[in-house]
């Protein structure tokens, strides 16, 4: 009986590992897709003022200002 539980435990460990690997692969694919979109639309992304976006984000709360300061 105890050996059956050990075998089941090992199966659970493998399934968790496989699930973790699939999640990592999915996150990597999402990242690569996002980078490809940014690259394809470089003419638009070059026009984005990152400093303005950061300062707008920081201005939304005192805690944000404390953590990030002025960008």
Can you tell me about this structure?
The mean pLDDT is 85. The longest helix has 39 residues, at 2-40. This protein is mainly α. The chain has 2 domains: 1-40; 47-71, no CATH class. It has helices at 2-40, 42-45, 50-58, 62-68. The chain is elongated. 83% of the residues lie in helices and 0% in strands.
Brief overview:
The chain has four helices and no strands. The protein is mostly helical. It folds into two domains: 1-40; 47-71, no CATH class.
The average pLDDT value, as a whole number, equals 85
Query: What's the number of domains?
Result: 2
Total helix count? 4
- The low-pLDDT segments are none
Largest sheet composition:
none
Shape summary: elongated
Radius of gyration using CA atoms only? 23 Å
What's the β-strand tally? 0
What structural category do the secondary elements indicate?
mainly alpha
List the secondary-structure elements in sequence, H or E. Answer: HHHH
Measured by DSSP, the beta-strand proportion falls in under 5%
- Give the helix proportion (percent range): over 70%
